[in-house]
Amino acid sequence: MRLQDYDTSRRHHATVVSTTRITPESSAEEVRELELDLDATGLGIEPGQSIGVLAPGDPAFGQEHHFRLYTVADLPEELEGNRTRIRIAVKRCFYIDPYSGERYPGRASNYLCDRAVGDVIEVAGPYGMPFEVPEEKDANLILIGAGTGIAPFRAFVKHLYHNVPEFTGRVILFHGAHTGVDLLYRNDERDDFAQYYDRDTFEAINALARRPGWSDAIDWEQAMDPQGAALWKMIEGPWTYVYVAGHEKILDELDRVFSRLAGSPERWARRKAELEAGGRWVELVYA
Asked: What is the DSSP string of 7-28?
């Protein structure tokens, strides 16, 4: 679905309550968590869903608004005074013109990263299907998030362990980033998943670039190969769900890895189609 096709008629004002850099200063990537108070309650936002931000548009292109989606990074809080508090993770982005070589700031991401406490922004939504807790409370969950794609899993895992005590299934989180300091919510300065590490059912595995100084891609094979046989056994089983979040390029990268685990691209394509048909392969990706 194209961004211009989203219905933005359901709009709300959101006040910035806090803005915090969640990548260490030593990281080349700036990612900020914005805490927002929306002027409405009962919006029904669930883990895996996104809100739309209507940043000021570019007058040169006749834009009133520049619309972008951001996944909710924590469980919403219903507050007094008809307000809902949410958190989103925003990476400050820049784009290189392929012809001139000039670098331009991403309009929505820089707009959000530059907001100060007390600023009011316009949002719409929520959008998208939530990541659902399986009906089978002993099911396996394979969660794969790259970059800011970890944000919905922060909310989902919190919901799983805080609100669904009957869930006993295994959860394996693969967290992809360029370097160790770029891991969001799981770096040396801040690890929001630490409270789950002592659970026998939870495991978090880092997927990093082999040579970060060379701008190599995330090495998913290196992260998954040590558990390759066990992973494929889980994927072949009847009660395993795979949830994927991040930039759309992650899909091709995962297809290559899972094709190796399956023994051939054809075998993986058949199994992936079965998972999709059964609602057990769910993607939350952006271009």
From this structure: ---SEEEEEEEEEEE-S-TTSS
